[in-house]
Structures are given as C-alpha cells and as structure tokens.
Design a protein that fits this description.
With 364 residues, this protein is mainly α. It has 15 helices and two strands. It has a two-stranded antiparallel sheet with strand order 1-2. It is globular and about 55 Å long. The two termini are 36 Å apart.
Length: 364
C-alpha cells in the first residue's frame, strides 16, 4: 500500500510564523531601555496566546475531530459572550429610553471582559458563522444562532451590521450549503431590525465632546459621515504617521494611546488593524499581522467546499473586516479566534460534518 503524502499545512504555517514574529518583536522592544518592558509584555499576551493556540490545533493528530470540537467550542463561547452582552443591555436599557443621547448611553453600557460593545460585536461574528454551520446539521443549534445574533444586535454596532451584510453576500456565493447563507440572512435581518427600532425610540444625537479633534474635523464632513467615522480616520492616519516616522521599531506595543493623546477617546488604538500594527511595531509587526491574516484567508480558500471552509472563510472574513474599523487588532479575543481559524484551515482526511456525526454517534 502506497502511503499518501501528508497534506500541506502552509496556511497554518503562515499564521504560526506571524505570531512568532509578533512575539519576537515584543521581546526585542522589551529589551530596549527606551521602552516600558511591562507595558510591552502585557500587550504581547494576545500574540503569545495566538501562537500557543495555533500550535496546539495544528499539531493535533486527529485533525477532523479537533476541527469539530473547535467549531462547537467557538459556538458555545460565542453564546456565553452574547449572554453577557444581553445582560448588560438589559441593565442599561431603562436609563437610555427617553434620555438625552440615549442611543449612545446604551452603547456605552455594553462592556465585556474582552472590550466594549463594538469589540464584542466583532468577536461574535465568528461564533455566529460557527453556530449557523452547526444548525444546518442539527436544528437545535438554531437557538445558538438566535442567541449570538441577539448579542450582536444588542451591541448596537452599525459597523458589525455592515460587515455581517458582506459576510451574507459572500455566503450566497461561496458557502457549502445555501442554508448557511439563509440562516445568516435571518440573523442579519434581526440585527437590522433591532438597530432600526433602537434608532426610532431613542435619541441618537451624539453627546457633546465626541466630535473629532483631528484634521478630519476640519473637512466639514462631520454632519455627512458622522463624527465617530472621522474620529476613526484621524486615529488610523495617526497610526500610519507614527509607523512612517519609526518604520523599524514602531512606538512600542501598548503605547498608541501616548502618541494619540491629543485625539478623542478611545484613543489607545488606531481602530484599524494594519495602521495599529504599523504604529506600535513598525514594518516587522505589520508583516506579522499580514502573515496571520493571509494564513486564515489562504487556508479558507484552499479548502474544498465544506462546513469547515465556511467557518474559516466566512468567520475569518467577518473578523478581519471588522478589525479594519474597530478596536480588535492585538486583543486577546481576536488573536485567539484567528489562531483557531488558522488551525481549522489545516487540511484533513474527512469533513467537519463527518466528524460531527461521528461525535454525536459516540455520545450516550
């Protein structure tokens, strides 16, 4: 019997190299006397966590079984995060209804251990896809889809709604089954409905002091595109400027808030994945982030149409797209999710659906 060659793991290797490079950048920065080693070490934790996760998933022998467990784990963790968001939403809602700037008061009340409402919305996109994939084979997972979709809706993140719409469009073109796209469409409809109703019953005027203080505010576009959008533009531009001035070293991990202290809060992040990496780690960290993103993208594209491909490709698209407009880059939730997706992209002998069925058959 001729032994078949092992499947290529190049996409996962790209992510592995990216996280290893990011950790190397952090070590080099911490060793420099001009930097705060403690702050850099704290900022490096997400990249180290991502490195460990991708190593564990990539090195597993029974990759299909691991893929099934990772997908279920993503869905379960997403349901937990969504439940946390919904509780915070329920607590903050009474003070927001009828109050001045109520829409923004409610959004400000949505906090989680992994970040604010926008961060939570971005992180929930991957579990939503995982839950939708599982719901195709087992209708009981529709409860999980509804819970995660409700969590995204409760964040009142318009950016997440736009990204989810893009994911739905791609799902109709590339998903393994049309039902995956249909389930995601229903989730999108619920998110949009909540945003519409919230905008109708609550005051949506921004609170004073939220207008951007950077160059974008001088363009006169605040009334057209919104102050928050222009504020993000200013932060991303600042990130590119800092990276341009310090292309080899960057300003140091965890120091973006210092170089953007004159811009409106939250200003500890560039709100744009590439600009943030370029500012804090120069070209080396920018390359590291691109390697991880390419590992997920190439891994999803190289897989045959299957539930696993849906999770990697659609979930990765949602997470990476949302990281271009929100505080996601360099955060532990984002890096761990990307590492899981990169690990899932490693080719195996069977399909995720087969592994899920086998797992269910072994269950008592």
């Amino acid at each position: 019997m001729v032994r078949q060659p092992a499947p290529s793991t190049r996409p996962a290797d790209l992510a592995l190299a990216g996280y290893a490079l990011a950790v190397t950048v952090a070590i080099a920065q911490a060793a420099a006397p001009a930097h705060d080693a403690g702050a850099i070490a704290r900022a490096a934790v997400p990249y180290l966590a991502g490195l460990l996760v991708v190593v564990l998933v990539r090195s597993a022998r029974r990759r299909d079984a691991v893929a099934a467990r990772v997908t279920v784990g993503l869905a379960v963790l997403g349901a937990g995060l969504a439940a946390w968001v919904l509780v915070r939403f329920a607590v903050a809602l009474p003070d927001a209804i009828g109050a001045e700037h109520g829409f923004y008061r409610l959004k400000a009340g949505i906090t989680t251990p992994l970040g604010d409402h926008n961060t939570a919305a971005g992180l929930l996109l991957v579990p939503l896809v995982a839950s939708a994939v599982l719901a195709v084979g087992d209708r009981r997972w529709r409860v999980g889809v509804g819970l995660v979709a409700a969590g995204i809706a409760a964040t009142l993140s318009r950016g997440a709604a736009v990204v989810l719409a893009v994911v739905v469009g791609v799902a109709y073109l590339a998903a393994s089954r049309r039902r995956v796209a249909t389930i995601l469409s229903a989730a999108l409809a619920g998110v949009l409905a909540v945003l519409f109703v919230a905008g109708m019953v609550m005051d949506t005027s921004p609170p004073p002091g939220t207008a951007p203080a950077g160059p974008a505010s001088e363009s006169g576009l605040a009334d057209v595109v919104g102050a928050s959008v222009l504020g993000r533009v200013d932060l991303a531009v600042r990130g590119l400027e800092v990276g341009r001035d310090r292309p080899l070293t960057g300003a140091g991990l965890g120091t973006f808030g210092e170089v953007a202290a004159d811009l409106p809060e939250p200003n500890d992040h560039a709100h744009q994945m590439l600009a943030h990496a370029f500012a804090e780690g120069g070209v080396p960290l920018l390359v590291a982030v691109l390697l991880v993103a390419c590992g997920v993208a190439f891994g999803g594209l190289r897989l045959p149409r299957s539930p696993r491909r849906d999770v990697v490709l659609l979930g990765g698209l949602g997470l990476l797209a949302h990281a271009q407009v929100e505080i996601l880059a360099g955060r532990i939730g984002t890096e761990v999710l990307l590492a899981c997706l990169a690990g899932l992209a490693v080719a195996g002998d069977g399909t995720l659906a087969d592994s899920l069925r086998a797992t269910q058959e072994r269950s008592p």
